[in-house]
Amino acid sequence: MAARLMQGDEACAEGAIAAGCRFFAGYPITPATDIAEVLARRLPQVGGKFIQMEDEIASMAAIIGASVGGAKAMTATSGPGFSLMQENIGYACMAEIPCVVVNVQRTGPSTGLPTSPSQGDVMQARWGTHGDHPIIVLSPSSVRETFDLTVRAFNMAEKYRTPVILLMDEMIGHMREKVELPPPGTIEVVGRVRTSVPPEWYKAYENTPSDVPPMISFGEGYRYHITGLFHDERGFPTQRLDEIGPWIARVFRKIERNLRDIFIYETDQVEDAEAVIIAYGATARSARHAVKQARERGLKVGFLRLSTIWPFPEEIVEDVAERIHRVIVPEMNLGQLALEVERVVGRRKVIRVGKVNGEMIAPHEILDVIGRG
Amino acid sequence: MVVKKQERESLVHERYLRHQKKFPHVWCAGCGIGIVMGAIVRAVDAVGLSNDEIAMISGIGCSGRMPVYVDFNTMHTTHGRALAFATGLKMVKPEMKVIVVMGDGDALAIGGNHFIHAARRNIGLTAIIINNNIYGMTGGQYSPTTPSHAYATTAPYGNIEQPLPICQLAEVAGAAFVARSTVYHARELSRFIAQAIQKEGFSVVEAVSYCHTTYGRINKLGSAVEMMRRLKENGIGQRAFERLPEEERADKIVRGVFVDRDVPEYTQLYDQVIAQAQRSVAA
Q1: How far is it, in rounded angstroms, from Cα A196 to Cα A194?
Q2: A40 to chain B nearest CA, in Å?
Q3: For B136-151, how does the pLDDT look when each residue is reduced to its tens digit (9 = 90+)?
Q4: CATH topology of domain B5-282
């Protein structure tokens, strides 16, 4: 495929289509509107469907309904809309409905700075909905990676029957870069686990060996019940401890046993490093530049870029930081993922570089910290 | 073979209810919600639909529990959002009959916006709103259809808000079919629901019920039987209502089909969007 100049939001929309997304519901919000605009035009071209709902609550509900009907489904929003989606994200967790939720982060809280980037929703992406639940959150740091991670987000959602959150930021969403997209046939696309058992044997929430129960769409002759209440293997409400316990254990287990597939990251020059920068999203671009400049000055600095931020890649961080005395975590918030890094490597090793005024973190701001060392 | 009425009734129950697994139900003895459920399955039977082609979607509250008992594709969603979930399902499965069951608080307070916009889009869903004028499951708080001056646990000095006219709202918002009956007039209710299910477009049936456990107790309206008798006495056909002098109209519940119009249905319009988009790519 020829190289194109493409915006991050557009790459997300194209990644969704490449992944097989055929339903999108959304509500206009800066800086995520472009994703809806592209999909309003593109989805019907490939036989898919687009709808602009009355708000973000309805958008999240509609993609769950569409997924139950068998479509790969996505919505896209930013901070204020992401807050509104939280209840139904919890529903998708509870009912194990595959779907992708894109949050192009802008500076908050509240209306904040609608056209400025932020990484302030890291904790909301993890814990925004009430109750304990596992969640997968991916965060891209380039336009091309936005395409790739959108595809991966759909694949994980379908494979593990779970909502997946793609945590972009205003800078990645609105930035244009030259990208060369992979030809359609070369992209790995995963569908949901199905079954050929007769309808009377089908259990929508069965404790299968893989921990991911097969999912049949509504209207295919397998009549079953879906609810946001705790439920038994057939999906009917339960208050029995011997049914609630195994469900909780299974939904966590289905993620935890697949971490190798879920963790996406990249390391650079960590072998001889004395300090390492751990970054994600747009900030990773500044971090990479800071590493280069540091190396030019003879400072032994390594780089760990995380594309998967939840579940937090503990083992990877532990491994990289083991022999190192200083870990720098730059992020456009006042220390959210840094809390996780501190938990894993110890507080004394970690230096936070945080910013919440709508400005990007510049390479020199990270470099200054290393220099102070 | 002629099937006797009683046998036919038992066939309807066996065919459409999860009768061996999920009963007894959670509703209070004397509640009208079960009558609405009966009216729905009889309507489905009358129209001749199979269980597989129906989805029943509900929100939260007493009405929200109905999907557990019916042997369709069933989904019990979040409070107020049933229509939005149903919209997504209907878009990807336009061939399915999607019945959305809601209470008055569910459909008109927390879900009021979704109700207006589902009607405005005229998407092919059947919304059945069971109106008992109160939040029953949480114990009797005033709802958007609680009459002015009536009492509720959260209106201990009387309700100072006005009730929302469900059918008029549905009409101005754009619904293709709007009807109202009561749980006393169960056969008529079932007939209206059958018409609603068959209608292309957004159809609304207001099923006027009562809650003797909360609303009836707080407002001293007597037992379920007495509240049912009041529906019988106050339920009145449209024409008879129009003949009534103004002073006799106050407590009446007007029954009938208020709207039955042909408006292009949303998923059918969207098929045209797809055709148009694909032509533009081919060109």
Answers
A1: 7
A2: 10
A3: 999 999 999 999 999 9
A4: Rossmann fold (3.40.50)
